[in-house]
């Protein structure tokens, strides 16, 4: 679980937009960039090259929450 204070100050390195904590997938999701950044050993890996592109269905699901 990520520290709430850390989560409140992290932003997407590509868009500088907010991130959403996706606990089941252990990722930080940037809807604005369409990327999901992995969290390994409780450390966010905020590198664009390490992120995966989220699908349109995933993006729509997050927007509808």
From TrEMBL:
Which organism does this sequence originate in?
Answer: Marinagarivorans cellulosilyticus
Protein name listed in UniProt? UPF0434 protein MARGE09_P3398
Family note = Belongs to the UPF0434 family.
Q: Name one Pfam family in it.
A: Trm112p
**Coiled coil feature spans:** none
Please give the GO cellular component terms listed in this UniProt entry: cytosol
């Amino acid at each position: 679980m990520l520290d709430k204070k850390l989560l409140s100050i992290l932003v997407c390195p590509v868009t500088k937009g907010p991130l959403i904590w996706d606990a089941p997938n252990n990722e930080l999701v940037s809807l604005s960039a369409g990327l999901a950044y992995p969290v390994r050993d409780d450390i966010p890996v905020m590198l664009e090259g390490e992120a995966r592109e989220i699908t349109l269905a995933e993006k729509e699901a997050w927007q509808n929450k």
